[in-house]
Amino acid sequence: MIIYGTALLAVCHLLGxxxxxxxxxxxxxxxxVGGVGIAMLLLIFARIYLHKSGRLCATSESGVHYWGAIYIxxxxxxxxxxxxxxALKGGPVALIAAVGSVLVCGLFVSFxxxxxxxxxxxxxxx
Length: 126
Fold this sequence. Notes:
By secondary structure, the protein is mostly helical. 75% of the residues lie in helices and 0% in strands. The protein folds into two domains: 1-81, no CATH class; 83-117. It starts with a helix and ends in an 11-residue tail after the last helix. The relative contact order is 0.12.
């Protein structure tokens, strides 16, 4: 049942929003900074941790996988709503932040991929 993944997604989303708000305040802004992306990373790490510790049954893992897959288009849709032109007119800080975030995300993706167990490819019949 997919509903099992919803609880983990909700917890990760709330923690991501809280961390994003705290990060925004630490940077001197009154907005959420990266809360949705942080929530996605929390969901990925939580799924890997629960899977490795054996606490995630197949049904729950299916639900978490579903919500993880559906969450990415939501993040993309939210990012598209931002006014990129206004950000670039604001100065080079936006460009530096964009390049930095792409590099950090690339490092996280590489790190997460290395945490996943390797699966053996099925042999071809002779």
